[in-house]
Please model this.
Amino acid sequence: MADLIQPRTLKGFRDYLPELMIPREQLLDKARRVYRSYGFAPIDTPALEYTEILMGKGGEESDRLIYRFTDHGGRDVALRFDLTIPFARFAAQYIGQLGTPFKRYHMGPVWRGENTAHGRYREFWQCDFDTIGTTSNAADIETALVIHDLMVALGFERFQVRLNNRLVLNGLLEELGLAGQAVKLLRVLDKLPKIGREKVRDEMTTLAEGESGPVVFHDRAERILALAETEGTNADILDRLQRDFGSNARAAEGIARLRELLDVAKTAGIPEERLRLDLSIARGLDYYTGTIYETFLLDKPDIGSVCSGGRYDNLAGLYTKQKLPGVGASLGLDRLLAAMEEMNLLPKASTPAPVLVVQFSPVHLGEYQKMARALRAEGIGVEVFPEPKKVGQQLKYADQRGFKVALIAGSDEFAEGVWNVKDLKSATQREKVPAAQVAEVIREILQER
Amino acid sequence: MADLIQPRTLKGFRDYLPELMIPREQLLDKARRVYRSYGFAPIDTPALEYTEILMGKGGEESDRLIYRFTDHGGRDVALRFDLTIPFARFAAQYIGQLGTPFKRYHMGPVWRGENTAHGRYREFWQCDFDTIGTTSNAADIETALVIHDLMVALGFERFQVRLNNRLVLNGLLEELGLAGQAVKLLRVLDKLPKIGREKVRDEMTTLAEGESGPVVFHDRAERILALAETEGTNADILDRLQRDFGSNARAAEGIARLRELLDVAKTAGIPEERLRLDLSIARGLDYYTGTIYETFLLDKPDIGSVCSGGRYDNLAGLYTKQKLPGVGASLGLDRLLAAMEEMNLLPKASTPAPVLVVQFSPVHLGEYQKMARALRAEGIGVEVFPEPKKVGQQLKYADQRGFKVALIAGSDEFAEGVWNVKDLKSATQREKVPAAQVAEVIREILQER
Model:
């Protein structure tokens, strides 16, 4: 016999066993339903792209993370590291055919050769949705509604969607004569929760002093920080913004957009406490230009935002001259799944079917499958045990996998046309249930949970 | 402005636009439901594996097709080219934890650097299901039922699952003194529909003459071909097999298994014409050892089998000493999708939501989203148009995307608490429908289709 090959996965990659894959599929399915319910249409793009497409923006960060190689045809290719760049390429390629506005969702794996020290994986799923081809605030508002409904659909009640608008921050920077340094300053500001106000202030000052542009003196850094730290109810914050920055045209537009977002969301029935203005969120990414979204679990804030996004002026400028403004967000599915695992929110079953038909007597296999198929036709998942092992062994298997109900019948029962229906949780048995009533009895048992 | 990067995909790769991705997601969802309804549990494995895992079996074929490279950590890695080998590795790694029998499905993309001449793609989805850890014929039988129910769920009525058993073929070869050459001979036999009986006979003869083993004379090749070409009803074929080969123990077991499969399927309610014995199907793959499955669309037989599989003695011999027998099959999802596209079986809509709320008046955006959310809560997908364009333009958009219903309301309607509901296909409008009845009216319109 040849030497065995050690079965193992690559560092930073993981297998999904049924106990984890069942809830992952449920999350994907729920996210899909919410996106679809808002009229977002699915698309898919290849995992592999020309490297020049993915690396269009260059940058050391991507260089370090990207899985890149030469294919059989001598092409320089790479695995996508997010779904945004492939979407930009896709939009540039087909927008004439797709028309605008165009709303899409895209769910799939991405690959990044990241440092695995902090439990990060090198392959993980993203679930993005975007509306492109419109600058209308209606799309920004809808994005907040989608995030809200998504979190509820995924089973969360205690969460907050935090909102900001880059226009407000940019308005202040303009007032302070710092408009030209906005991108760098916002990147520093974005670190506020991580490194604290002192360090942010120092970095801002150093940054400005090292540049040829206007110097950020401490008092200007303080004003930026004061804005970011504005606290109070949504109404308080809006009033204060209006008072302090309403005269700046850019800021005024941002304020008006945030106000309309909150008004519409309220009318549409979103609980007010779930949408919170938070002027400290800036998102490090420099392509955001308007509304910004982050989403936190109140019982697990330390994992960071689980659904983030924003408005951008131009999605696909690298690939087309047609300007494509839009707004969207990305659900960090695997991060959320890991959090739910830690919070014990995941069911323990490793079977997707609730019912096991015990194979009591192999000559009745046809009858077992007949009943199983009848139940499946009514939407009840049923596994027929493949071997005529002892009933006790089959019930042990049922218990280990997390089945809820076992059906047992032998020649006596078939002669009478009845089944024994065992509730595996309470370990009670309903005996001699007529075949026609088995589905109903199973539903009763399943509903009691 | 920097030069634009040409937006394009790699040769052999394709994007899925909504019109194609909507039905693809539906097929995936339907397949998932069927697998789950039989108790198959989902798993996932990484797209990238150590090359030694994937190339365990060596072979020029894989060498030529595999996407292989060195990662940042200097590892020799490759993209999976099927879901079987990753499953074998997975099973070897976790079988102690998973227990047996273990039933899994796995749906995901695979990558092969194939010649793209015949419309083949280099990235495509497979949907596999397998039962491992049992030699019981109950699992073989269930595999046929799953394939049947899968095809029905995917919307087909005119299809045939063709069945064979390697044991019958091997029994004959044993009788003919050709057992040692079974793998090679079956590979040749598998070409029968492609190259015809003359060439198969010639290849068999040449093959045997060139080997040190026993020579295949024409009459022995004729006997193999005669077996493969056996025609008649399932009962006829079984009777003839029993008469001609029943004395060979191996063949007798194969015959008994096929007979039981057909009996159980009949009792379980599978229409008899959908399961057909076909002794010519051999499947080129040498790891099959028992039941073999192929599935053909009667209206599109030229695309070949859309769901194929079989029983094997040992799944994971490369990675573990534990013998893991099993049975399973793989749905060629993208091939099926391409066939459905050609057969005009795909809906033309590029929106997953049936209802468009026209944005008649922006001040009522909150009301539009309120109604939309109420309908979504009842399971009706609703898009709110993001811009207050002319109603005609919005209706044109609705028509182009394939929306079924438009909802229109302005200040007059909101004052009365009513909506105008437009059936976009018949271009008729139900006016002044009370808000509480809108969902019901929409359901009526959608059901008329």
